[in-house]
Amino acid sequence: MSTSMYIVYFIIIMLLPLYAQMKVKGTYNKFAKQRTMKGQTGAEVARAILDANGLYDVRVVPTQGVLSDHYNPATKTVALSESNFYEASVAGAAVAAHEVGHAIQHKEACSMLTLRSKLVPVANISSNASWIFVMIGIFASSTNFLLLGIILLAAGVVFQLVTLPVEFDASKRALVQMNSLGIITNEEERPARKVLSAAALTYVAAAAVAVLELLRLILIFTNMRSDD
Hints:
It comes from Lysinibacillus sphaericus CBAM5. Keywords: Membrane, Transmembrane, Transmembrane helix. It holds the Pfam family Zn_peptidase_2. This protein is mainly α. 76% of the residues lie in helices and 6% in strands. It has one domain. Strands 1-3-2 form a 3-stranded mixed beta sheet. Strand 2 and strand 3 (77-81) form a beta hairpin. Helix 6 (143-180) packs antiparallel against helix 7 (186-227). The two termini are 18 Å apart.
């Protein structure tokens, strides 16, 4: 890889995630100030959608942090950041509905969600161990160690790629549920969609960076093999 290509590569892997984070924070902050006509808090939105889908056993709880919202399939819990849990806004409603979208996926045994859940421990191990083998491989000029690092890193890339359709589907479900239950008006659908699209961009950026890094390491491996 030439020097100019390296520069372009590093600019992409640095700026793409930064842009995605700025986009989601800017969009969220903008529509967190816009109250929904119905005036439901994020907790009320989540509970309404859960009950409408027969998910009475799924709890909705507040959690600390900003944009720390998530669904835990192990405990059947929708955790919403405190601002989304207690306040009524278009952004909060969209985020809450998105997390409930994951709960609905769980109920329906969505194949991609099931696959992602199974990949979590593999991704956690590979993300921690891959770079150890990569660094050993590069500094010791060992193609075997580098190849092992690449294989482990590839597992993490698979996890990132599987995450994309799971997140896109949850956002799609969120919009359908909010519209069908009258949680948002027609005028509020566009800003809600913007919030969900901005959030999805962070996953796209993470996946793109992971793929680029994997390709770079494969190129390094190929060059090392050709020099042997």
